[in-house]
């Protein structure tokens, strides 16, 4: 029975005939037609063309590529623009070596997925990649699919040399978790400002919110990675309340680069965190929190009232871990980020569009147009979207009450493993598509959706590439991180802030860093 269902779906995807769909007995089948794709332009692609693809953008490099007759998504791409698609998926950790070997042998794939802007720029400099600038105006839907900041990330030396690869996911991993049951017990409201948050953290620490008569609770815990970087571990979220962040947070204002880690507002952010440290509302174990897993353990134990964690910690599996480790499932809720003194209300900054699709310089004009046509179909065809984002219709998704319903969370382990290869094609899924994640707790989806409005734009500092002549770059970054930690813990008083800035200039050649930023921002057109 299941075999028949799959076969009907394959046929519907390839042939798209209404009579065939009726024969399959599924009246509300969504046909992945190419109505908004280049295929509708008559005989534009009458001659079949072979396209080789180096796909290290897969979401599961270990999944084997299925035979063409079972690979519905591949068949859809081939039919859309009349191509014979030869896809190569390198094993995890081997992509760079494999690609460099192909390039050295002159066997450059027509379409390459690259994971960083540095790689994109490097391969272009080596003469491997084509300039796509002359062609993109022919693909308005593709251009509209990604925001300006994403396209800027694929621009180098004034030329667009790539197409954004896939949306990064924002608004979920940096959620503001707070113990609502503790708020209720202490008769306090959800905080909305840094001052209100401080008072809540202080009460969580001092007023025995769990009612066990012991002094064993804390208002907050964060951490830093093993390299001493504060980003993504909680403290940086507190800094965003003041509109600043550690390296490499660089903005452009009034035609000048603004280094947020040396901005005067950073001093205020550090003073706030130092106030927290002095009041002992921060769990002293924060210095050992060097991995996300360790922070999760603190969440599960239930002795901290406010944390920055992934909204998926509201999902049933994590709720069960709370029960097993802490003995209860606390009433954690996800709240909006605090609104800071300068109006900043940021859950996180939109992730930089590092990944991209690039096209071989060996490709002629016709092949470039054919590839861009395929990418436009892949990323913009609305009827095809669920086939790429969710997988196989009738198995991984279906139409329920007239709407697309992702069924991945309902599948057995065996079925999930059988169709892992679908992950090779999920790139079109939108970063704000809650249905894609198949959340089991409605509160997770609600938190994810609500957080979207607090995702700030990508900072232009992400466009900067390392200057090989800047020999002090690593030492400078290390000094900045260490100094910020000393200031926020009180090991170095904030009265020494100016000394910190002076040391950056004299010992770590901050001016070279500034000059590099100005030069590259000018090349990117961000500074005149």
TrEMBL record:
Keyword terms: Cell membrane, Lipoprotein, Membrane, Palmitate, Signal
Q: Which InterPro entries would you find in this protein's record?
A: Bact_solute-bd_prot1, SBP
Q: In which domain of life is the source organism classified?
A: Bacteria
Q: Which residues form the signal peptide?
A: 1-23
List the PANTHER family hit by this protein, alphabetically. Answer: ARABINOSE-BINDING PROTEIN-RELATED, POLYGALACTURONAN_RHAMNOGALACTURONAN-BINDING PROTEIN YTCQ
Protein's name in the database: ABC transporter substrate-binding protein
Q: What is the lineage of its organism?
A: Bacteria, Bacillati, Bacillota, Bacilli, Bacillales
